[in-house]
Structure to design on (520 residues):
């Protein structure tokens, strides 16, 4: 699916995750967040998004919500306030990362 | 003397030990380290809560499961030192290795969810992944006259990802046979979006849950349990009251893997997904529930991996290149209640599809459909486990998944 985010044409999966996470910029992140009704993004939101991008670059996969809560400095409770419903999925989506792998 | 040392003698460690003892010469000592005196056939735990009393059939003395010539140390591991190639046991003794296999599995962490452990533990809150949990749950179910039974998976990954569904299907049958089903509400609170992760299987299993009147509470990440008020809470503020809570607690790898710098944040070991070598460690291999791989934590996976691991261990010993042969192959029986079962077969890239197994088109078992033969297959598997799988005798089950006799998902979605 092709979308226009922050003036760029970007391909996403049917559930809204970027196909190529290299196309992400902070402005694209803001557009993705606005799409799910998160506007404007607070400093705490950015703390989580930045952690997710750095962690994914290091580990080669999107962090799980438990991992974000453990390592980002933002607690699980706050994560659910910042990214209601599914913080793991929502943070990954706004950070331009693949959908976090559940289990099998 | 050279040393192959294997940590953990569950399904994975036992198969590797028995197989490598046969393949390696007498200049190799094969040692397994595991503090538990008995080997537990974990799939058998599923049936205990519903009245099965076959503890003696699912437990075997460890010494009877290991081939003669395998040295067994019934001790716990303190740490692994990858610089000096030594394993330190609790108490200080050191075991050297030329090659080391990590097979210590996944362990339940009920203490990670506030409220689970306490005076209600094994009374109105149970697990069924341990012998004691399954036995105390058997008593609670026998006396359960009516109310809401909630099954909660705290987080993934878990051992045998289909077991929560099987538990619910069997609970539906159990209460139906007792004439109490109309008084019992069954609820499945799961962190997943639906019944299962893979779309085709999720559809089949999801419609079974619906058919049996089992309510799903999806995307439910448990934060805490109020054991006195009997309420299960989630991080997004949902509350699920229960009369009986069956929990599948958070799973983690062995603690010493974390402290030895070999584990990820859940102490699972980062492992090459095709060769099974531990990442960044030439002399270390990992298999079974111990790894961080996106394959199921299930006995069939440990079995399929053991063949690839044995081949690669022999290659590493001979200084030859490893083969990237593990494809994520998983094969699970899913008990669906009333004497029937579903069989699913999949790998990293292909989700479970309908068809037949192990012989394409002939079966005798059907894939992704309910049948009585599948159920008998599941029960008969225990015999195979003790007598063929653990001793590492050849089985007619290919470690690579086959597409023969299966119908691709695109066909089915078009037909639907």
């Amino acid at each position: 699916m092709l979308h226009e985010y922050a003036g760029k044409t970007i391909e996403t999966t049917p559930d809204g995750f970027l196909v190529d996470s290299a196309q992400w910029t902070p402005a694209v992140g803001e557009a993705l967040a606005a799409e799910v009704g998160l506007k404007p993004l607070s400093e705490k939101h950015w703390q989580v998004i930045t952690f997710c991008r750095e962690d994914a670059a290091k580990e080669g996969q999107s962090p799980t919500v438990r991992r974000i809560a453990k390592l980002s400095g933002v607690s699980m409770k706050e994560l659910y306030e910042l990214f209601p419903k599914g913080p793991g999925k929502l943070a990954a989506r706004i950070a331009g990362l693949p959908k976090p792998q559940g289990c099998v | 003397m050279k040393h192959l040392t294997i940590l953990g003698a569950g399904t994975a460690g036992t198969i590797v030990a028995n197989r490598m003892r046969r393949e390696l010469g007498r200049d190799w000592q094969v040692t397994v380290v595991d503090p538990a005196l008995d080997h537990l056939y974990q799939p058998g735990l599923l049936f205990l809560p519903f009245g099965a009393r076959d503890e003696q059939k699912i437990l075997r003395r460890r010494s009877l499961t290991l081939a003669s010539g395998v040295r067994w140390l019934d001790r716990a591991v303190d740490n692994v030192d990858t610089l000096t190639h030594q394993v330190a046991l609790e108490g200080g003794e050191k075991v050297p290795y030329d090659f080391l296999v990590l097979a210590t599995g996944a362990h339940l962490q009920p203490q990670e969810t506030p409220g689970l452990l306490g005076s209600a533990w094994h009374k109105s809150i149970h697990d069924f992944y341990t012998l004691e949990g399954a036995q105390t749950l058997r008593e609670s179910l026998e006396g359960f006259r009516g109310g809401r039974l909630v099954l909660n998976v705290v987080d993934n990954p878990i051992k045998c990802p289909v077991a929560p569904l099987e538990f619910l299907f069997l609970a539906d049958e159990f209460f139906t046979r007792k004439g109490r089903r109309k008084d019992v509400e069954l609820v499945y609170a799961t962190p997943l979006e639906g019944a299962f992760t893979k779309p085709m299987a999720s559809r089949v299993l999801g419609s079974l849950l619906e058919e049996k009147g089992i309510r799903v509470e999806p995307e439910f990440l448990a934060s805490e349990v109020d054991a006195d008020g009997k309420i299960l809470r989630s991080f997004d503020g949902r509350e699920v009251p229960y009369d009986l809570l069956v929990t599948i607690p958070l799973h983690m790898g062995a603690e010493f893997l974390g402290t030895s710098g070999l584990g990820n944040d859940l102490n699972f070991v980062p492992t090459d997904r095709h060769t099974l070598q531990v990442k960044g460690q030439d002399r270390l291999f990992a298999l079974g529930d111990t790894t961080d791989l996106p394959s199921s934590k299930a006995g069939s996976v440990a079995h399929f991996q053991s063949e690839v691991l044995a081949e690669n261990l022999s290659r590493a010993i001979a200084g030859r290149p490893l083969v990237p042969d593990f494809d994520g192959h998983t094969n699970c029986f899913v008990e669906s209640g009333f004497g029937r079962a579903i069989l699913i077969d999949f790998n990293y890239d292909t989700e479970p599809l309908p068809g037949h197994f192990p012989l394409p088109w002939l079966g005798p078992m059907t894939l992704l459909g309910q049948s009585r033969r599948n159920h008998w297959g599941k029960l008969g598997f225990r015999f195979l486990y003790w007598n063929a799988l653990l001793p590492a005798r050849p089985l007619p089950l290919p470690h690579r998944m086959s597409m023969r006799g299966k119908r691709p998902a695109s066909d089915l979605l078009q037909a639907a």
In short: Strands of chain A lie at 2-5, 8-11. Residues 60 and 76 of chain A are 22 Å apart (CA to CA). The interface with chain B takes residues 64-67, 70-71, 76-77, 79-80, 84-86, 101-104 of chain A (CB under 8 Å). Chain A is about 45% helix and 10% strand.
